[in-house]
Amino acid sequence: MPDRTNEKKPNEKQRTTAEAGRPGLLVGVFQTLATQHAQLAQMFSELSSNPEQRATLWPRMRRELVSHEHSEVRELYPMLRQFEATRALADRHDEEARDLDALICRLDTMDIRTAEWMGLFEQLVATVLHHAKDEEEARIFPLAQDVLGEARALELDAKLMMAKQQLAESN
Ligand SMILES: [Fe+2]
Ligand SMILES: [Fe+2]
Q: Do 66 and 104 contact (CB within 8 A), yes or no?
């Protein structure tokens, strides 16, 4: 009689990323995007703790944020919209991305030297961090990686980085 004891043991390779639920297990495009989130969070806290340097710090941060978000909207989410399991998440993502754009536009119309600007900036930070950590890293990316598979996650990485570069140059 064959020994079936091994079949009952959880096999690390068969465990899906969604089950594991840890950003550390993300690969390719998902790992790159999670790393960009960490870089954005770092830039945000630099500006929050050095508000007197906001006029210098904000333009680069704005460029990084806009090119990050727009490259996701352009390269990743249309692909996720093709799968039933991730379609609704993709639609919701793009709605949140439009809300972020609207917040950035409002900041653009305000005087950067004012307390009101700083207040709205803090609101943007909270919105972006919720979007990146609670939505993308915790819910969307693990599921998306399972749906797309690791090979496509790796392939998409280069496309997304190229799109981000182009967007950064035009913003
Ligand atoms: Fe996003
Ligand atoms: Fe993101």
A: yes
**Phi, psi values for residue 170, rounded to 5°:** -100, 5
Counting ligands in written order, which one lies closest to the CA of residue 41? Answer: 2
Kindly report the pTM of this predicted structure.
Answer: 0.85
CA separation (Å) from 136 to 25, 93, 119, 131, 160?
Answer: 14, 8, 25, 6, 16
What is each CA distance from 125 to 6, 62, 82, 115, 130, in whole angstroms?
A: 47, 11, 30, 15, 8
For 110-135, what is each residue's pLDDT tens digit? 999 999 999 999 999 999 999 999 99
Q: How far is the CA of 159 from the centre of ligand 1 (A)?
A: 16
Q: Distance, CA 133 to ligand 2 centroid (Å)?
A: 8
Name the DSSP class of 21: -
Task: Determine the distance separating the centroid of ligand 2 and the alpha carbon of 109, expressed in angstroms.
Answer: 24
Measured in angstroms, how far is the CA atom of residue 31 from the centroid of ligand 1? Answer: 13
Q: Where are the domains of the chain?
A: 26-169
Distance 77 CA to ligand 2 centre (A): 11
